[in-house]
From TrEMBL, chain B:
It comes from Donghicola mangrovi. PANTHER family: PROTEIN-GLUTAMATE METHYLESTERASE_PROTEIN-GLUTAMINE GLUTAMINASE 1, STRESS RESPONSE REGULATOR PROTEIN 1. It comes from the Bacteria. Residues 7-118 form the Response regulatory domain. One of its GO terms (biological process) is phosphorelay signal transduction system. InterPro entries: Bact_response_regulator, CheY-like_superfamily, Sig_transdc_resp-reg_receiver. This is Response regulator. The keyword Nuclease does not apply.
Length: 375, 119
């Protein structure tokens, strides 16, 4: 036990003899001082104890399990929720290597390595560590749990241990799983719906007098629409890159003959579908009657973003080159409805068809609108 | 290939599509085995039936896939193609060289495969 320094200041007996009266007074003062100091210390101690009690109450009311380890990895503290959640007594593991007593597994069912636990990682120097584990409780049941680790530091900022919070995320995980299965099933159904529609058309027209060309056109139009849908589904229905929309169609209808290039640009799902159908019509038309109907003919397809104006716009230009002399078509079929009115309506822009003698030029200019936020 | 009609197994969970594919293939002079719309049925046919080729729809709904059917066909050295509405790189168990036809399947693509296998 350390001796208090106050005792050393007590005068030696030889001095007492000099003026006993005075010395007695001095001693009395010292005793009074000592008493005051002791009172102060015990008050400080009481406050500390109160603080500790407050802290313990806090830890015990927190809706998460809490574990604390010292710098050596020894688990020194855990709140009651740890035991409630895990349904086994707290393992006061002596070191990180002993953490295998905790029965957590990854999503593939492999046990978590002791040194991979957030507690161990933070002790190793990480400032934050998070991990979702499938935990096998004491009674054998399993649940999903999130472990979040942070360092414990002393007043000088030195790392003296680590603490982890254990959170039950089982309900959340189950909900996510259900949602994933639902979305997958929905996508599967929607994708198959196109195949079913095509088969219905095929079967319906099979023994009818409808000419084969009509059946094929119908078939191909449905294919183009389905391809665009498929692409959007791959991107979770939010939007599609314009280049992909173009490539999906023209590389299929006229591989290598449409030269396309332009900036990266995201179109919303409705516009992606509208452009897909329009490019399908333009491309098949070019193959049948336009520049792609002769060897050496081609199409230049360019697009760009113009953000110099107050309202930025996006413009696309389809130009046929090296084809036969263009004959203006007055026919207003499904194709021209798609390349003109449908696109204009869907994009809020303007469409122009120029029957230049050297080749058809189709242009579309649309205002750029903010895409809906990704969730 | 012998004088007998080549026999083609079709696995597809959408009944209308399955029947349509069957007709297209039969019209070209092949004999259709199935079509099977359920996994158990398909695996049984792949293992037991006398077949020369197969078309496998990848997803049979509710998470069931034709991965196991493909494995049996590989063991028996029977040529087959996957049919899927998913992105081509989404079929994890497809091996290089195994054809994949994107849904809706074009009749030409089916016939191309058959002609190559049964030439």
């Amino acid at each position: 036990m350390r001796v208090s320094p106050l005792m050393e200041q007590v005068p030696a007996p030889a001095d007492l003899l000099a003026d006993p009266h005075q010395e007695i007074e001095a001693l009395k003062r010292r005793i009074a001082e000592l008493e005051a100091e002791t009172a102060e210390q015990s008050l400080r101690l009481r406050t500390k104890r109160l603080k500790l009690q407050e802290f313990e109450a806090m830890v015990e009311t927190a809706p998460v399990g809490i574990l604390v380890a010292d710098a050596s990895g020894q688990i020194t503290f855990g709140n009651h929720l740890v035991e409630e959640m895990l349904r086994h007594p707290i393992h006061f593991s002596e070191k990180v290597a002993d953490y295998h007593a905790w029965t957590a597994f990854d999503q593939h069912g492999h046990p978590i390595d002791p040194e991979k636990y957030p507690l161990a990682r933070v002790l190793e120097g990480e400032d934050y560590s998070e991990m979702d584990v499938h935990y096998q409780r004491g009674d054998g049941t399993k649940f999903w749990m999130r472990i979040i680790g942070r360092p414990v530091k002393d007043t000088e900022g030195h790392r003296i241990g680590a603490a982890v919070a254990l959170i039950d995320i089982d309900a959340e995980r189950k909900l996510q799983d259900t949602q994933r299965i639902l979305i997958r099933e929905l996508n599967h159904r929607v994708k198959n719906a196109f195949s079913v529609v095509k088969s219905i058309v095929n079967q319906s027209l099979r023994y009818s007098t409808v000419e084969d060309g009509v059946r094929r056109t119908l078939d191909n139009r449905l294919d183009a629409y389905a391809a665009a849908h498929g692409r959007l589904m791959d991107t979770k229905w939010q939007s599609g890159d314009f280049r992909d929309v173009v490539a999906d169609i023209v590389d299929r209808v006229a591989p290598g003959r449409v030269h396309y290039d332009g900036q990266a640009f995201q179109v919303c799902s409705g516009q992606a579908l509208a452009f897909s159908m329009a490019f399908y019509e333009l491309a098949t038309n070019a193959v049948k009657y336009g520049s792609l109907s002769v060897p050496g003919g081609r199409v230049d397809l360019k697009w760009e973003i113009d953000d110099t104006e107050d309202t930025p716009s996006f413009s696309v230009r389809w130009q046929e080159l090296g084809g036969p002399l263009v004959v203006r078509s007055e026919r207003k079929g499904f194709g021209s409805f798609i390349t003109n009115r449908a696109i204009a309506l869907e994009t809020g822009g303007s469409v122009e068809m120029d029957y230049a003698e050297t080749g058809v030029i189709w242009t579309c200019s649309m205002p750029i609108e903010e895409l809906p936020e990704d969730e | 290939m012998s004088e007998a009609m080549p026999r083609v197994l079709i696995v597809e969970d959408e009944v209308i599509v399955a029947l349509d594919l069957s007709e297209v293939i039969e019209e070209r002079g092949y004999e259709v085995v199935g079509p099977c719309s359920r996994l158990k049925q398909a695996e049984h046919a792949a293992r037991e039936a006398q077949i020369d080729a197969a078309f496998l729809d990848v997803n049979l709904g509710y998470g069931a896939t034709t991965e196991g059917v493909a494995r049996i066909l590989r063991e028996r050295n029977i040529p087959f193609a996957f049919i899927t509405a998913d992105a081509p790189d989404g079929v994890e168990f497809r091996r290089t060289g195994e054809p994949l036809i994107r849904k809706p399947a074009s009749h030409a693509a089916l016939i191309n495969c058959l002609e190559k296998w049964c030439a």
